[in-house]
Amino acid sequence: MSMAAAGLVAAAALVLTGCGSDDGGDSGDKTSSSAPTPSGGGDKPSGDIEGAWTGKTDGKSVDLAVTGKKAVLVADGRACTGDLADMGGEPMLSLKCSDGNTDRTMGSIESNDGKTLVIAWDAGKKDTLTKSASGKLPEGLPSTLPTGIPTP
User: Fold this and answer.
1) What is the Cα–Cα distance from 150 to 133, expressed in whole angstroms?
2) What does the pLDDT look like over 123-147, one tens digit per residue?
3) CATH number of the domain that 72 lies in?
4) Which of 11-20, 80-89, 126-135, 142-151 has the lowest mean pLDDT?
5) Model confidence over 23-44: pLDDT tens digits?
6) Domain for residue 115, yes or no?
7) Which of 5, 31, 87, 140 is the most exposed place for a label (fewest CB within 10 A)?
8) What pLDDT score does 87 carry?
9) Alpha carbons 45 and 60: distance in angstroms, whole number
């Protein structure tokens, strides 16, 4: 694995595991994270989508990693991070790209059979991704890291 790919994986791991700084303050909220979720969705959307997905759109690599309700997407030489959310019963990806690009910031899951994931983005792009084998990096990772990624 190249150093750039290793760096990309490390950056994705930091984002997905929530490592990084927060405001340093205690929110005072001591409610259990295992509190029941309201009916009509809960954690179901992320359970089917969780994992690493890879593919090509317009001849360029698109890589997505989802853990719980956090997501990292690397496409077109940029990194986008955000959340997997249940929007009215439909799973959606809500991302923010480090360079401000909006091609892949709000995406609806058109289909997911556990092997192939199709995401339709509000800006018109559509990605068809294949689930990567557990514990293996997706093929076709970029050999250079995107620029402009904030550091902790």
Assistant:
1) 29
2) 999 999 999 877 566 566 666 766 7
3) 2.40.128.50
4) 11-20
5) 444 444 444 334 333 333 333 4
6) yes
7) 31
8) 87
9) 27
CB-based contact 56:124 (threshold 8 Å): no
Total number of domains in the chain: 1
Range of the domain at 63: 3-18+44-131
* Burial class, 30, CB count within 10 angstroms (exposed 0-12 / middle 13-18 / buried 19+): exposed
Stronger pLDDT, 88 or 5, i.e. the higher one: 88
- Give the integer Cα–Cα distance in Å for 74 and 7: 13
